[in-house]
Design a protein that fits this description.
Two copies of one chain form a homodimer. By secondary structure, the first copy, chain A, is mostly helical. Chain A has one domain: Orthogonal Bundle (Tetracycline Repressor, domain 2), CATH 1.10.357.10. Chain A has twelve helices and no strands. In chain A, helix 3 packs across helix 4, helix 3 crosses helix 6 and helix 7 runs antiparallel to helix 12. The longest helix of chain A has 27 residues. Chains A and B meet through helix 9, helix 10, helix 11 and helix 12 of A and helix 9, helix 10, helix 11 and helix 12 of B. The first copy, chain A, binds a DNA duplex (30 and 30 nucleotides) through helix 5.
DNA sequence: TATTCTACCAACCAGCCGGTATGCAGGCAA
DNA sequence: TTGCCTGCATACCGGCTGGTTGGTAGAATA
């Protein structure tokens, strides 16, 4: 009788509950921004109540911080950092990652943009706690791109006089800019066009 | 007696009142986003009341639209489009505009980023009215960059095989990306670093 | 089996926020 | 002067939103 009523609810699994809250909060933030996220919407999505949320997180801000640390940062690493790890063709791997994002699994990339950059743009001037966490994520990302460029340099794929630190920073900026422009246009084609420019830049670094 | 009380208030000047509301609303949106803008704050800044605001604008959305049309778009044109108009050295003018934005008059550029892009990132997926207006502003901007590039091409400053349309799109994306990254870091130095990458890209277009 | 603690629910609350209703002073036409 | 319309001010409201409080069922502990 009880099992027939609601199989999903009754079981006591705090870690999973916390994770469900985090993921629902992430989606709400992704779509509406942190200020636009409504806790009631998160609870409706998880079919939980205020009590559950405030048992796992002291307030909305802490929930936001946790979303950065435990959802956005790991996702970013899996999507952008991991593919560059120890690639034999670092420059090619970089280009490939850029091209892949056009037809990336989540089709929301064009509609809603980059979760990391969205939150950074919204919250960096308003909340130092957010800013530090998001800037840290950018730093991780930057270092992986820089490492790939330096490896490409060692392999003679790009010129020796390139400042890999500086270029990595610009590549990050350009990628976020491309995604942002595509989002503003709500157009996947715009992202393709934009990315071609970025790839053209990377090609211009090649040694010949 | 009446003149001594409050010289600024009493005079009946609807156009100026409307303009004051627009500028205060712009600053609020610039700092907190459209969703984060509170009408009460706008009214506090202008020392007006609800009656005045709702006399000039039917609702919050319409106020936001008016800010785009009457503040953000003209400002963008003055800052980015105008300097490229009929420049004898279009490529040099482009580089100069980019370099100037590092030490631009409003020091809030690093703190709060680009008003146009901020709003585009926040509202494009949520409100088609905003999206169209902001996309239109981007189109104006794009066309002016494209025209400058094509002029540079005619003058033999950049290679003939460059796709100026595509490059202009990428340049826009890169500029917004640079500003965004600097905002995320809250660092003027980051903007300088980032801009050097963009200028390096523009140099790579040169014919030799 | 009695006790305790964890995980969560249900109900409520205060403050804010967009929006409205109403009133009224001053310019302007007649 | 009279009346009218524009340009605001004042006061108010309903609903939403983050946050709180008291309780309780079930697992863990003893």
């Amino acid at each position: 009788m009880e099992q027939a009523e609601n199989t999903a609810r009754a079981q006591r699994n705090p870690d999973q509950t916390r994770q469900r809250i985090l993921e629902a909060a992430f989606m709400e933030i992704y779509r509406n921004g942190f200020q636009g996220m409504r806790l009631d919407e998160v609870l409706a999505a998880t079919r939980l109540t205020k009590g559950a949320l405030y048992h796992h997180f002291p307030n909305k801000q802490a929930l936001g911080y946790a979303v950065v640390d435990e959802v956005i940062l790991p996702t970013m690493q899996a999507m952008w950092v991991q593919p560059l790890r120890g690639a034999e063709e670092p420059l090619g791997a970089l280009v490939e990652v850029i091209e892949q994002m056009v037809d990336s699994k989540p089709p929301e990339m064009i509609q809603y943009g980059c979760p990391l950059n969205n939150l950074a743009q919204e919250m960096s001037p308003l909340d130092e706690g957010f800013r530090q966490r998001l800037d840290y994520a950018f730093a991780i990302w930057h270092d992986s791109v820089q490492a790939a460029l330096e490896q490409a340099q060692r392999l003679g794929q790009i010129r020796k006089d390139c400042n890999c630190d500086e270029i990595a920073t610009f590549v990050l900026a350009a990628m976020e800019g491309c995604i942002g422009l595509a989002k503003a246009a709500q157009s996947r084609e715009r992202l393709r066009t934009c990315n071609r420019g970025l790839i053209q830049f990377l090609q211009s670094l090649k040694a010949h």
